[in-house]
Fold each of these.
Amino acid sequence: MAEFSPYPQTPLQVEWNVDDGSTSTLEVRYENEGWTAQGTLGSERAQFVIRLSATLVVQQFMLFRDMDEPDLWLGRDRSGRWGEVNGAHRPDLDGCSDIELRMNPFAASATMKRLPLHDSHAASLTVASVDVETLQVVPRQRRFARLSARRWRYTSAYQAREVEANLDDFGLVVDEPGGFSRRAPGTPAS
């Protein structure tokens, strides 16, 4: 089974070059007995915040496009029921285990880090797929397969097909051919 290093207690910052010429960012930090991941979504020019439990289970998701208040705010309770900030239950999302974002590979990374798979094993999950432009959130079936300790095959939200990607020691995508490539710290955007 893959053993990734835990995220550090100090903020972890990562940037990716996106194949469309934009840049996506991520900061992961430990707070309130869980993890908060926030970042940007490439050319979508949106920002997201995902609050996860200590075991990387999604608890809350917020999307900011052009306002100080979230354009979209979803929460998931301990029983797996999803709802909107106004309390409206989203039964169509119940059973979804994770969030899927098109312009940032963090959500897929968190899923792979959490899955207890051995080499050559796979799992299919239902994820809540977010369309940043329309704010539509729909359940989608996604497959994750561990090829080796740091190489995985999964359904890419960016490319809408299965891709193979390398992960780093923290379980974050290093590169997704045709989608993302990690920027070295201090490297100007392409």
Amino acid sequence: MSYPVTLQLRGRRCTVLGGGPLAVEKARGLVAAGARVAVVTATPDPALETLEAGGAIQLVARDYTPGDLTGSFLAIDASGDEEINRRSFAEAEESGVLMNVVDRPERCHFHAPALVRRGPLNVAISTGGESPFLAGALRARLERIVGEEWGPFTAMVGGVRRRLRRRGVPIEEQNRVYRRLLRSEVRDLLREGRESEARYAAAAIETAAGRPRPGRVALVGAGPGDPALLTVAARELLAEADAVYHDALVDPRTLALCGPHARLVDAGKRGRRASADQAWITAQLIEAARAGEDVVRLKGGDPFVFGRGGEELAALRRAGIEVIVVPGVSAALAAPAAAGIPVTLRGVASSLAIVTGSDRDGASPARLERIAAAVDTLVVLMPLGNLERVCARLVGAVGPDRPAALVSSATLRDQEVVRAPIGRLARAAHAAGIASPATLVVGEVVDAMPAREVGELVAGAGSFPGIQEVRG
């Protein structure tokens, strides 16, 4: 195991052996860190000659000889020559120079990490020499996530920190200020180039240090199941939340994205089982926000698709609580898609309706029949509690032979799909032991794709490898 550190190289002599592109990369990195860099090579890349001409490095135009590391604090052997590798490492060992022989982990005192540089913020990624490729791949991902705005944002937070320390603000309150800055619009403003507005917003947060501050509630969609389908905004809110009130069926991997100090509260509703009361949930959200907490109400699918999100939004606004809404991928669309069923398809289906099969939230039987008869594709959420009655009503509206599918645990590894004419679907689902959560799809689109093509789509889905198909 390696011990990660960052080294202060400003003004220190560092030596690079080798003259190819890799040596150029290492030399530039050391120059950027403020080191005095010497490069030893008989075959210098033109980029090294340019660096020497600009005074950035000292170029020694010959092959390495013992003694070239004298006076060096750190050295990197990027020569790719086994004999030079052996001799340079031996000299470094003898003279106490920190040495990294590229692609030779056994001849490394340290491992150069892949770096994401954003002004004063540096994110280092190291695999301990196991796989520089993976370190580079992770760096590329982080560079897309940690945008350029993080540089000025880090500098801005540093300025706030120094001023708060001079004022003698206790560390606990300082940390609250930093969390508010992180959750604020400051980074968004910097990303958009609105620096003066960003400074103003940061100053307002800094000035309010020590004063009571109301929290806020974010109504966030958790999607159909697979945490890979969460939005970026949802991930950020979960990482920074003080409290997360979550539905019962939210995947544990999604909850694992919450910050280590977040308070997790099961606020799920379960059919025919003990469940959290809606009035209690709303009161808890209001109380937590008034206590200054930033709260996430994490709801399966989308908050506003049979998720009581509208009711909670109205109650929170009446209480004067700041609310933000982050949509999620609804199972109404994700479940059919994960089963290879397009809810609309040119020449087959051009209309779609979404209803619920729950007695608590459902439409009247007559209305369900009218909706089913009026659209090409019908999606029924939460159908299992009343599946036989729902199917019977649909048979009355569209006939017993309309294609149908029941998708269970959509997008998860245990996803199952039962396909049968609507007149036989309830019996087929019972025989297959289908469990909640499930989504019912009714329409010609269910059988619109040839079975071979559906199989190919499922096999290539990647995120949903455990799909099982049953035909009734």
Amino acid sequence: MIKIRTYFICLSVLFSLNACQSLETLSIDYLVPAEISFPSNLKRIAVVNNTSAVPDSNIINVPQKKEPLLVNELKKSTTYFWGDAAIATESLANGLAGANYFNEVVICDSALRANDVILRENTLSKSEVEELCRKLDVDLLISLENLQIKAVRTVKFMPDWNVFLATTDARVFTSVKAYLPKRNGAMASLVLNDSIFWEEGASTETSAMAQLIKDEELIRQTSDFGGTIPVNKLTPSWKTSQRFYYSNGSVNMRDAAVYVREQEWEKAFELWQKEYQQSKSKKVKMRTALNSALYYEMQDSIPQAVEWATIAQNLADEVEKATTKMKEKKSIYTFPNYFSISVYLSDLSERMSNIAKLNMQMDRFKDDF
């Protein structure tokens, strides 16, 4: 949630910046490491379903207290479900295969605990793991251990639109474990959750109620979604982020912006550096320093990008007196350059801290990725 809020605040600041100076934005994609690191010699993995068979009814009986309706809410209900583990296991396997990180991903179609009488989580034993790895000819097991869903359905009236709105907010809780042969217990455990949302409008309350997603479809879609949640925790993944650069103030800055749009970053960088060296204006130096940081990030030279972003941040502080204004509890809109550059520097610092871990995880490809 913090990252999302920061992102929207940063966009607001950028829009306010754009009112008084020219800014350009672009999207960049870069790899971020997985939460869990696996040895590079693990080439083949299997995804298995280690959940208990659920009762005929997927609904989980949970004692609930009646929640007060919020403004405009007409009806509201909360239901808990067992997810469809078979769907989630297949979704997890497809997601790991699509990440192209391991040489091969296989799926064990049979539920390992289909005959359980009592619903429970049960860690696979060392002998079970070794037998499964031998039968499936794999080096590692990724096991789905539990899958539960909390669905909140609401019907509300929106007077400004004169429409009845039917919404379903489903949160899915996914538990997975990673097992290595010859090792007691799981090498790693993940308990994750995320949500999926449906919304439909209708002219009457009755028709809005009819628009609410049905249990069977909700379980199907949410289980499929739940299987994708662990993928980015188990394999490195691509992240898309927004970046900005200054494009006005002089002929060199405008020409450099043209080079950027043409993907000629070296020529743009030369002009930014020329402007930085020649100008005596702290504002100009701030802008060219930030642009230079972006150039280095585009070259995956993150230490140099951090260095130039830090220079830009210090110059922005001098220009806008940001440190002083923060002590006076002034609005961030009174020092927009400093704030936006600081957010960018924070992103770069995070990338910097991840370099060693990412390099270790990508070592299996020997720079061929």
Amino acid sequence: MTYAEFQQAVRAKRFAPVYLLYGDEDFLIDEGVQAITEHALDPGMKSFNLDVMDGGKVDAKDVVAHAASFPMMGPRRVVIVREFEKLVSAESAREIVTAYINRPLESTCLVLVSLEPDFRRKPFTDLKKKATLVECKPLYDQYVPGWVADRIQRLGKEANADACRLMHAYVGNSLRSLQNEIDKLFIFVGERKQITSEDVATVVGASKGYTIFELQSAVGRKDAKEAVKILERMLTLGQSPQMMIVMLTRFFNQLWKLSDLERRRIPDSEIAREIGIPPYFVKQYLEFRSNFTTAHIEQNFKALLEADTVLKTTMRDAHLVLDILIISLINQPTEAVPLPL
């Protein structure tokens, strides 16, 4: 059963008598355990029908005794055993647990948690046949922004794609760390329903000691010294070079759109909506736009594409490639610095 299928079944109150939650993503494991507890038990009955045990400190007979007990004043009992692999380290314990797994009590949800199950040995071989197995593994990079967007939506707000990608760039793949930053963002935006890239930069980026928007601002002002200093700090702290290129490309695309909007005398509120920035940033972006000719912006799109290609297809040092890129973005087209091939 996939993690999504597991969550769907639990929310629909379709419970299995034995679960094994395993894998390296402990945030999903904890969330899965919490889901079973919340949906299987009445809130007032948790003290009677919930048992949480540490596999390294409890005896297998005690686990089975609790699992084989009928619930009190409710339809279901939940027994959670963490570090299950420690519980079954002895052969006698494996035999006791295996016997229960083969004939579980239907009114009990026995939830076994193991970070390192060995499916070549009992009782894990029996669990593969008799229990509901849910693997909680870390997400691949390409799925993390989508997870962030879905998580924010489930909690009652919306975040655009740029905000979710930027969150991933700052925080990485740890779902627990991402959730912590989402919690901070919700406090920061208050009643506002939309979370923007600027919000992420302000809340998450500031806590990391750097933001892509600081780099954009330095480039927009044509402050090469400050831009290179910010760039080096971001790279040293683990910021993704590819994400910098994505966000800088977005920045120059916004400046490109500004030319037409400004010529048409569009009001600031509509400019903000069209290019995807808060209204109070419009004046600053208009100042940035005045620093770049159309030809210069066109040249910068080429430089950004070239840098992205070099990073993806060669082993060139990212620091050098991006240092040269930043200088090229700030210099006039006739002064553009060639990237190392």
